[in-house]
Amino acid sequence: MKAIGLTRYLPISDPDSLVDIEIETPAASGRDLLVKVEAIAVNPVDAKVRAPKPQVEANPRVLGWDAAGTVVAVGPDVTLFKVGDPVYYAGSITRPGANAEYHLVDERIAGHKPASLDFAQAAALPLTAITAWEALFDRLGVSPKGDDAGKSVLIIGGAGGVGSIGIQLAKTLAGLTVIATAARPASQAWCKRLGADHTVDHRGDMAAQLKALGFAQVDYILCFNDTDGHFPAMAELVAPQGKICTIVENAAPLPVERLKSKSAALIWEFMFTRAMFGTPDMIAQHRLLNEVARLVDAGRLQATVGEHLGTINAANLRRAHAMLEGGQTIGKLVLEGF
Protein backbone atom coordinates (compact mmCIF):
# COMPACT_ATOMS: atom_id res chain seq x y z
CA MET A 1 0.00 0.00 0.00
CA LYS A 2 1.02 3.61 -0.45
CA ALA A 3 2.22 5.58 2.56
CA ILE A 4 4.32 8.59 3.51
CA GLY A 5 7.16 7.91 5.92
CA LEU A 6 10.61 8.82 7.15
CA THR A 7 13.81 7.09 8.16
CA ARG A 8 15.70 10.22 9.22
CA TYR A 9 14.46 13.21 11.22
CA LEU A 10 15.27 16.16 8.99
CA PRO A 11 14.28 19.80 8.48
CA ILE A 12 11.05 19.97 6.53
CA SER A 13 12.86 21.86 3.74
CA ASP A 14 14.76 18.63 2.99
CA PRO A 15 12.85 16.52 0.42
CA ASP A 16 13.89 13.39 2.34
CA SER A 17 12.12 14.57 5.51
CA LEU A 18 8.91 12.88 4.33
CA VAL A 19 8.91 10.52 1.34
CA ASP A 20 6.43 8.43 -0.62
CA ILE A 21 6.87 4.73 0.17
CA GLU A 22 5.24 1.33 -0.37
CA ILE A 23 4.66 -0.85 2.71
CA GLU A 24 2.71 -3.98 3.54
CA THR A 25 -0.99 -3.62 4.31
CA PRO A 26 -1.60 -4.50 7.99
CA ALA A 27 -4.15 -7.07 9.21
CA ALA A 28 -6.78 -6.46 11.88
CA SER A 29 -6.62 -8.44 15.12
CA GLY A 30 -8.14 -8.10 18.59
CA ARG A 31 -10.25 -4.94 18.80
CA ASP A 32 -8.65 -3.34 15.75
CA LEU A 33 -10.42 -1.82 12.78
CA LEU A 34 -8.66 -1.84 9.42
CA VAL A 35 -9.62 1.46 7.86
CA LYS A 36 -9.29 2.54 4.24
CA VAL A 37 -8.07 6.08 4.80
CA GLU A 38 -9.96 8.64 2.74
CA ALA A 39 -8.64 11.86 4.32
CA ILE A 40 -6.19 13.03 6.94
CA ALA A 41 -5.47 16.20 8.89
CA VAL A 42 -2.10 17.47 10.07
CA ASN A 43 -1.39 18.68 13.60
CA PRO A 44 1.52 20.32 15.45
CA VAL A 45 2.29 16.93 17.03
CA ASP A 46 3.17 15.62 13.55
CA ALA A 47 5.80 18.32 13.12
CA LYS A 48 7.10 17.85 16.68
CA VAL A 49 7.59 14.11 16.21
CA ARG A 50 9.27 14.69 12.84
CA ALA A 51 11.55 17.48 14.12
CA PRO A 52 15.30 17.05 13.46
CA LYS A 53 17.21 14.68 15.74
CA PRO A 54 20.03 12.16 15.27
CA GLN A 55 17.81 9.07 15.49
CA VAL A 56 17.59 6.86 12.38
CA GLU A 57 14.75 4.38 11.78
CA ALA A 58 15.65 0.92 10.46
CA ASN A 59 12.20 0.74 8.83
CA PRO A 60 10.23 3.73 7.57
CA ARG A 61 8.12 5.38 10.26
CA VAL A 62 4.65 6.53 9.29
CA LEU A 63 3.21 9.54 11.12
CA GLY A 64 -0.26 11.05 11.17
CA TRP A 65 -2.85 11.34 13.94
CA ASP A 66 -6.13 12.41 12.39
CA ALA A 67 -8.03 10.36 9.83
CA ALA A 68 -11.42 9.59 8.36
CA GLY A 69 -12.22 6.57 6.25
CA THR A 70 -14.18 3.36 5.86
CA VAL A 71 -13.86 0.13 7.85
CA VAL A 72 -12.79 -2.69 5.49
CA ALA A 73 -11.99 -5.39 8.07
CA VAL A 74 -12.39 -5.94 11.81
CA GLY A 75 -10.56 -7.96 14.44
CA PRO A 76 -12.34 -10.89 16.12
CA ASP A 77 -13.07 -8.92 19.31
CA VAL A 78 -14.66 -5.88 17.65
CA THR A 79 -18.21 -5.09 18.81
CA LEU A 80 -18.68 -1.38 18.10
CA PHE A 81 -18.30 -1.29 14.30
CA LYS A 82 -18.84 -3.39 11.19
CA VAL A 83 -17.32 -3.48 7.72
CA GLY A 84 -18.55 -0.54 5.67
CA ASP A 85 -18.90 1.89 8.58
CA PRO A 86 -17.51 5.41 7.96
CA VAL A 87 -15.28 6.36 10.90
CA TYR A 88 -13.09 9.18 12.17
CA TYR A 89 -10.39 9.08 14.85
CA ALA A 90 -6.98 10.32 16.00
CA GLY A 91 -5.25 6.99 16.61
CA SER A 92 -2.46 6.20 19.05
CA ILE A 93 0.95 7.85 19.10
CA THR A 94 2.51 4.49 20.05
CA ARG A 95 1.39 2.80 16.79
CA PRO A 96 2.05 3.46 13.08
CA GLY A 97 0.24 6.57 11.92
CA ALA A 98 -2.55 7.21 9.43
CA ASN A 99 -0.53 8.70 6.57
CA ALA A 100 -1.19 5.51 4.63
CA GLU A 101 -3.85 3.94 2.42
CA TYR A 102 -4.87 1.50 5.15
CA HIS A 103 -4.55 1.94 8.90
CA LEU A 104 -5.23 0.00 12.09
CA VAL A 105 -7.00 1.68 15.00
CA ASP A 106 -8.47 0.32 18.22
CA GLU A 107 -12.25 0.60 18.07
CA ARG A 108 -12.34 2.15 21.55
CA ILE A 109 -10.76 5.37 20.28
CA ALA A 110 -12.69 5.64 17.00
CA GLY A 111 -16.09 7.21 16.38
CA HIS A 112 -18.79 7.04 13.74
CA LYS A 113 -18.14 9.82 11.22
CA PRO A 114 -20.58 12.76 11.27
CA ALA A 115 -23.04 12.02 8.45
CA SER A 116 -23.27 15.69 7.49
CA LEU A 117 -19.52 16.03 6.82
CA ASP A 118 -17.42 14.70 3.98
CA PHE A 119 -14.28 12.74 4.80
CA ALA A 120 -11.95 15.76 4.63
CA GLN A 121 -14.14 17.82 6.95
CA ALA A 122 -14.44 14.90 9.36
CA ALA A 123 -10.68 14.23 9.40
CA ALA A 124 -10.12 17.76 10.74
CA LEU A 125 -12.00 17.08 13.98
CA PRO A 126 -10.87 14.05 16.03
CA LEU A 127 -7.56 15.03 17.65
CA THR A 128 -8.60 18.60 18.33
CA ALA A 129 -12.12 17.71 19.47
CA ILE A 130 -10.82 15.09 21.90
CA THR A 131 -8.14 17.47 23.18
CA ALA A 132 -10.49 20.41 23.66
CA TRP A 133 -13.27 18.27 25.18
CA GLU A 134 -10.96 16.53 27.65
CA ALA A 135 -9.22 19.80 28.55
CA LEU A 136 -12.44 21.71 29.18
CA PHE A 137 -14.74 19.08 30.63
CA ASP A 138 -12.46 16.36 32.06
CA ARG A 139 -9.44 18.36 33.25
CA LEU A 140 -10.98 21.74 34.17
CA GLY A 141 -14.22 20.12 35.32
CA VAL A 142 -16.48 22.54 33.45
CA SER A 143 -20.02 21.24 33.00
CA PRO A 144 -20.96 20.40 29.38
CA LYS A 145 -24.60 20.87 30.40
CA GLY A 146 -24.32 24.58 31.16
CA ASP A 147 -24.09 24.41 34.95
CA ASP A 148 -21.13 26.85 34.81
CA ALA A 149 -22.77 29.22 32.33
CA GLY A 150 -21.64 32.80 32.71
CA LYS A 151 -18.18 31.99 34.01
CA SER A 152 -15.23 33.16 31.93
CA VAL A 153 -12.56 31.29 29.99
CA LEU A 154 -9.46 32.62 28.26
CA ILE A 155 -8.46 30.45 25.29
CA ILE A 156 -4.85 31.10 24.27
CA GLY A 157 -4.42 30.15 20.62
CA GLY A 158 -8.04 30.53 19.60
CA ALA A 159 -7.58 30.27 15.84
CA GLY A 160 -5.56 27.05 15.89
CA GLY A 161 -7.05 23.62 15.46
CA VAL A 162 -7.71 22.95 19.15
CA GLY A 163 -8.80 26.52 19.80
CA SER A 164 -11.26 26.39 16.91
CA ILE A 165 -13.24 23.56 18.48
CA GLY A 166 -12.50 24.70 22.04
CA ILE A 167 -14.24 28.01 21.43
CA GLN A 168 -17.34 26.19 20.22
CA LEU A 169 -17.48 23.72 23.11
CA ALA A 170 -16.96 26.48 25.67
CA LYS A 171 -19.66 28.68 24.16
CA THR A 172 -22.23 26.25 22.76
CA LEU A 173 -22.19 23.51 25.39
CA ALA A 174 -20.80 25.16 28.52
CA GLY A 175 -22.28 28.63 28.03
CA LEU A 176 -19.06 30.33 29.15
CA THR A 177 -18.00 33.86 28.30
CA VAL A 178 -15.18 33.17 25.84
CA ILE A 179 -12.14 35.40 25.38
CA ALA A 180 -9.90 34.01 22.63
CA THR A 181 -6.43 35.18 21.68
CA ALA A 182 -5.70 35.93 18.03
CA ALA A 183 -3.02 38.17 16.61
CA ARG A 184 -4.24 38.95 13.09
CA PRO A 185 -7.53 40.38 11.76
CA ALA A 186 -8.24 37.14 9.86
CA SER A 187 -7.71 34.96 12.92
CA GLN A 188 -9.73 37.34 15.10
CA ALA A 189 -12.63 37.15 12.64
CA TRP A 190 -12.33 33.33 12.61
CA CYS A 191 -12.61 33.20 16.42
CA LYS A 192 -15.60 35.53 16.46
CA ARG A 193 -17.35 33.45 13.78
CA LEU A 194 -16.92 30.33 15.91
CA GLY A 195 -18.49 32.00 18.93
CA ALA A 196 -15.83 33.94 20.85
CA ASP A 197 -17.31 36.89 22.75
CA HIS A 198 -14.04 38.82 22.71
CA THR A 199 -10.55 38.55 21.20
CA VAL A 200 -7.23 39.83 22.51
CA ASP A 201 -3.75 39.81 20.98
CA HIS A 202 -1.49 37.30 22.74
CA ARG A 203 1.55 39.18 21.43
CA GLY A 204 0.65 42.16 23.59
CA ASP A 205 -0.18 42.75 27.24
CA MET A 206 -3.05 40.31 27.73
CA ALA A 207 -3.77 41.43 31.29
CA ALA A 208 -4.19 45.06 30.18
CA GLN A 209 -6.38 44.03 27.25
CA LEU A 210 -8.63 41.90 29.45
CA LYS A 211 -8.95 44.67 32.02
CA ALA A 212 -10.00 47.03 29.23
CA LEU A 213 -12.75 44.53 28.41
CA GLY A 214 -13.84 44.43 32.04
CA PHE A 215 -12.10 41.22 33.11
CA ALA A 216 -9.64 41.63 35.97
CA GLN A 217 -9.38 37.84 36.15
CA VAL A 218 -10.88 34.78 34.47
CA ASP A 219 -12.24 31.58 35.98
CA TYR A 220 -10.55 29.23 33.53
CA ILE A 221 -7.63 29.32 31.12
CA LEU A 222 -7.03 26.92 28.23
CA CYS A 223 -3.47 27.26 26.95
CA PHE A 224 -3.08 25.88 23.45
CA ASN A 225 0.14 27.73 22.63
CA ASP A 226 3.52 28.46 24.30
CA THR A 227 3.13 27.53 27.95
CA ASP A 228 6.49 29.07 28.87
CA GLY A 229 5.82 32.40 27.20
CA HIS A 230 2.28 32.82 28.50
CA PHE A 231 2.67 31.44 32.03
CA PRO A 232 3.33 34.83 33.73
CA ALA A 233 0.16 36.27 32.19
CA MET A 234 -1.83 33.15 33.07
CA ALA A 235 -0.67 33.26 36.69
CA GLU A 236 -1.76 36.91 36.88
CA LEU A 237 -5.09 36.42 35.14
CA VAL A 238 -6.41 33.21 36.67
CA ALA A 239 -8.94 33.87 39.42
CA PRO A 240 -8.48 32.67 42.99
CA GLN A 241 -9.36 28.96 43.02
CA GLY A 242 -9.39 29.06 39.23
CA LYS A 243 -7.88 26.49 36.91
CA ILE A 244 -5.37 26.49 34.05
CA CYS A 245 -5.12 23.60 31.58
CA THR A 246 -2.30 23.47 29.05
CA ILE A 247 -1.59 21.06 26.21
CA VAL A 248 1.89 22.38 25.41
CA GLU A 249 4.92 21.03 27.26
CA ASN A 250 7.16 23.59 28.95
CA ALA A 251 10.81 23.96 27.91
CA ALA A 252 11.97 25.36 31.26
CA PRO A 253 10.78 25.07 34.87
CA LEU A 254 7.59 27.05 35.44
CA PRO A 255 7.26 29.38 38.47
CA VAL A 256 4.23 27.46 39.73
CA GLU A 257 4.65 29.03 43.17
CA ARG A 258 2.88 32.05 41.70
CA LEU A 259 -0.33 30.02 41.83
CA LYS A 260 -0.10 29.10 45.52
CA SER A 261 -1.71 32.18 47.08
CA LYS A 262 -4.67 31.77 44.73
CA SER A 263 -5.00 28.02 45.36
CA ALA A 264 -5.13 27.83 41.57
CA ALA A 265 -4.66 24.58 39.67
CA LEU A 266 -2.36 23.81 36.74
CA ILE A 267 -3.48 20.71 34.85
CA TRP A 268 -2.13 18.87 31.81
CA GLU A 269 -4.10 17.49 28.88
CA PHE A 270 -2.62 14.93 26.46
CA MET A 271 -5.20 13.26 24.29
CA PHE A 272 -3.00 10.20 23.66
CA THR A 273 -2.91 9.25 27.36
CA ARG A 274 -5.82 6.80 27.28
CA ALA A 275 -4.53 4.83 24.28
CA MET A 276 -0.89 5.05 25.35
CA PHE A 277 -1.55 3.50 28.75
CA GLY A 278 -4.58 1.40 27.85
CA THR A 279 -6.57 3.04 30.63
CA PRO A 280 -9.75 1.32 31.81
CA ASP A 281 -11.79 4.24 30.44
CA MET A 282 -10.24 4.14 26.96
CA ILE A 283 -13.70 3.76 25.42
CA ALA A 284 -14.52 7.29 26.62
CA GLN A 285 -12.94 8.61 23.42
CA HIS A 286 -15.27 6.46 21.30
CA ARG A 287 -18.25 7.92 23.15
CA LEU A 288 -16.80 11.43 22.97
CA LEU A 289 -16.35 11.27 19.19
CA ASN A 290 -19.86 9.88 18.74
CA GLU A 291 -21.22 12.80 20.78
CA VAL A 292 -19.21 15.30 18.74
CA ALA A 293 -20.62 13.70 15.56
CA ARG A 294 -24.15 14.05 16.97
CA LEU A 295 -23.57 17.72 17.78
CA VAL A 296 -22.13 18.37 14.30
CA ASP A 297 -25.06 16.67 12.61
CA ALA A 298 -27.46 18.68 14.80
CA GLY A 299 -25.80 21.91 13.62
CA ARG A 300 -24.43 22.80 17.05
CA LEU A 301 -20.73 22.41 16.13
CA GLN A 302 -19.01 23.55 12.93
CA ALA A 303 -16.25 21.91 10.92
CA THR A 304 -12.86 23.55 11.41
CA VAL A 305 -11.06 23.07 8.07
CA GLY A 306 -8.82 26.01 7.37
CA GLU A 307 -7.27 24.83 4.11
CA HIS A 308 -7.48 21.75 1.85
CA LEU A 309 -4.00 21.00 0.52
CA GLY A 310 -4.90 18.38 -2.10
CA THR A 311 -4.09 14.69 -2.31
CA ILE A 312 -2.22 12.66 0.30
CA ASN A 313 1.42 12.53 -0.77
CA ALA A 314 4.84 13.46 0.58
CA ALA A 315 5.07 16.82 -1.19
CA ASN A 316 1.74 18.03 0.17
CA LEU A 317 2.52 16.70 3.65
CA ARG A 318 5.85 18.54 3.65
CA ARG A 319 3.96 21.69 2.70
CA ALA A 320 1.53 21.16 5.58
CA HIS A 321 4.36 20.62 8.08
CA ALA A 322 6.08 23.78 6.85
CA MET A 323 2.88 25.78 7.26
CA LEU A 324 2.41 24.51 10.82
CA GLU A 325 6.00 25.31 11.70
CA GLY A 326 5.44 28.82 10.34
CA GLY A 327 2.78 29.38 13.00
CA GLN A 328 0.32 31.25 10.78
CA THR A 329 -2.34 28.62 10.10
CA ILE A 330 -6.01 29.12 10.85
CA GLY A 331 -8.10 26.06 11.58
CA LYS A 332 -7.01 22.63 10.34
CA LEU A 333 -4.99 21.55 7.29
CA VAL A 334 -6.46 18.54 5.48
CA LEU A 335 -5.46 16.25 2.61
CA GLU A 336 -7.71 13.80 0.78
CA GLY A 337 -7.24 10.70 -1.39
CA PHE A 338 -4.14 8.96 -2.67
From TrEMBL:
CC terms in the record's Gene Ontology section: cytoplasm
Protein name according to UniProt: Zinc-type alcohol dehydrogenase-like protein
PROSITE patterns per UniProt: QOR_ZETA_CRYSTAL (PS01162)
Gene source species: Cupriavidus yeoncheonensis
Start and end residues of each Enoyl reductase (ER) domain: 13-335
Subunit note: Homotetramer.
GO function terms (MF aspect): oxidoreductase activity; RNA binding; zinc ion binding
InterPro entries: ADH-like_N, ADH_Zn_typ-1, ER, GroES-like_sf, NAD(P)-bd_dom_sf, Quin_OxRdtase/zeta-crystal_CS, Zinc-ADH_QOR/CCCR
NCBIfam families linked to this entry: adh_fam_1 (TIGR02817)
Keyword entries, A-Z: Cytoplasm, Metal-binding, NADP, Oxidoreductase, RNA-binding, Zinc
